[in-house]
Amino acid sequence: TGGTLDVNGTLNISGTLNMDTNDSDVTISGSITLTSPAVIQKGSGTVTFDGDLTYRDLVGGRNFGRVVIDPTTTLGSDFTADSVHILASDTLVTDGYEMTIFGTMDIDGTLDASPGADGNSTITVGGTWDMTGGLFTSTNSTVMLNGTQTAAIYSDSKAFNNLIINDGLVAYWKLDETAANTCLGGVNDNC
Q1: Rounded percentage of the chain residues whose pLDDT exceeds 70
Q2: Are 131 and 107 in contact (CB under 8 A)?
Q3: How far is Cα 79 from Cα 58, in angstroms, rounded to an integer?
Q4: pLDDT tens digits, residue range 82-99?
Q5: What is the mean pLDDT of the chain?
Q6: Strand order, beta sheet including 135-137
Q7: Which residue among 14, 56, 90, 156 is the one 20 to 30 A from 135 at the CA level?
Q8: Positive/negative CA dihedral, 63, 54, 121, 36
Q9: What share of the chain is helix, strand, coil (3-state, %, to 5)?
Q10: The pLDDT of residue 1
Q11: Cα(13)–Cα(137) distance, rounded to whole angstroms?
Q12: Quick one: pLDDT band at residue 188, thresholds 50, 70, 90?
């Protein structure tokens, strides 16, 4: 595409969307449907879902790269991206579909992973999980952290329903609370 592409309506892709040539930024305000043989050539630009829309990848595994959710996106299929940032006051509804995020999941708004049309969601994240600024509705969902690089979990004392840490290593994970001397009867956090 080159430069910035602003789609102020529905986007149906059955060919190639090339965002790599000029690392294009793309904004899409209407529903998105990918049908065979859709190809997404992602670049280093940002793709912003900037309308109340439904995302459907009927091919499977198509990756838009860096995705920003603003205001509400509802999944109508499984979803794949390099990273996802849900802006404050905005919502991503999984509707029971699976999410594969190769990098960071940054929740400043709401990630609603309540059971839906496709059952219970599994959200697989290969990088940092940051929900300090937002809300995660985790009812019956599973979050799997499977990154092999340095990553962190920032939960701001918010709960997961089911959390799996699977980085392929045989070792241990150091869990470190953020407040000093918070253990019952503990001193220097040696609980």
Answers
A1: 86
A2: yes
A3: 10
A4: 999 999 999 999 999 999
A5: 89
A6: 11-13, 32-34, 53-57, 72-75, 91-93, 110-112, 135-137
A7: 56
A8: negative
A9: 0, 40, 60
A10: 47
A11: 31
A12: low
112 and 91 Cβ atoms separated by less than 8 Å: yes
Residue 142, strand partner residues:
122, 162
The CA-CA-CA angle for residues 91, 155, 151, to 5°, reads: 100
User: Which phi and psi (to 5°) does residue 117 adopt?
Assistant: -55, -30
pLDDT of residue 23: 84
For the chain, state the CA radius of gyration: 18
Token representation of residue 104: 């960071």
How distant, in Å, are the alpha carbons of 89, 105, 107, 164, 187 from that of 153? 21, 10, 12, 12, 25
Supply the pTM of this predicted model: 0.88
Q: Pick 19 or 49 by higher pLDDT.
A: 49
7, 28 in Cβ contact below 8 A? yes
Asked if the model's pLDDT at residue 191 lies above 80, the reply is no
Task: Give residue-wise pLDDT tens across range 138-186.
Answer: 999 999 999 877 788 998 889 999 999 887 765 556 665 555 555 555 5
CA distances from 159 to 29, 43, 163, 166 (A): 32, 34, 9, 18
Task: For residue 146, give every residue at least 6 positions away whose Cβ sits within 8 Å of its Cβ, in sequence order, or none.
Answer: 124, 125, 126, 166, 167, 168
